[in-house]
Amino acid sequence: MQTPSGHSVESSSAKRLVVLASGGGSNLAALLAAHGDPAYGARVVGVVSDRPDAGALDLARDAGVASAVVAMKDFEDRTAWNAGVLEAVSVFQPDYVVLAGFMRILAPEVVRRFEGRMINTHPALLPSFPGAQGVRDALAHGVKVTGCTVHLVDDGVDTGPILAQVAVPVQDGDDEPTLTERIKVAERALLVETVGRVAREGLYVTGRRATIGR
Predict the structure, then answer these.
(1) How many Cβ atoms from other residues are within 10 Å of residue 150's Cβ?
(2) What class of enzyme is it (predicted)?
(3) Among all residues, which ones are annotated catalytic?
């Protein structure tokens, strides 16, 4: 595991966000663009990736945000890797953990450590079309409307309480790349809005019902 690198400057009142990302970091970029406004209520203080070549790490460096790499190949098994992820995230003392294109399933003990504070996005209107192929599955099913979901993470796969959703119409002639791109645009905006509201107004969870603010 590579230790955290870089630095960040934050408002003492801002909620601390740690972002987990595996790819280019388009959702991270949207959060970084928002967190410069003190009124947003949250700042990204750390980025953790399972890939040393992830573009998200470059975004973190350019923004002066600390980062850490927890690559699977550096650990003897998945149990050790999950312990590494937990350690890397915990170093930043997050108020909330945001999974932004993180392509690994975390062990229940990691999820439980941040229960009610780990936020994920999914490119479909959950509970429909969970899993890694949400866009493909929606197209195969012939739906006329799909969308994206921001939800809390639990021990299942895309089964946590839903925080927010937005619909995206399926257009005639859509294929997986074109629909995915339109969903990503909606997803970035929804994630930024939802995380900001959670940071400013608080989050209250009763069973499967999650409410932002009172």
Answers:
(1) 24
(2) transferase
(3) 122
Work out whether strand 96-99 and strand 66-69 pair parallel, antiparallel, or are unpaired.
unpaired
User: How large is the C-alpha radius of gyration of the chain?
Assistant: 17
Report whether 106 belongs to an annotated binding site.
yes
User: Binding residue per annotation — 46?
Assistant: no
Q: Which helix (H) or strand (E) holds 96?
A: strand 96-99
Residue 56 parent element (H or E)? helix 55-62
Task: Name the residue type at position 87.
Answer: E
Taking the mean position of all CA atoms in its chain, how far away is CA 198?
14
pTM of the model: 0.90
> What pLDDT score was predicted for residue 207?
86
What pLDDT shows up at residue 118? 96
78 appears as a binding residue in the annotation: yes
CB atoms within 10 A of CB 156: 11
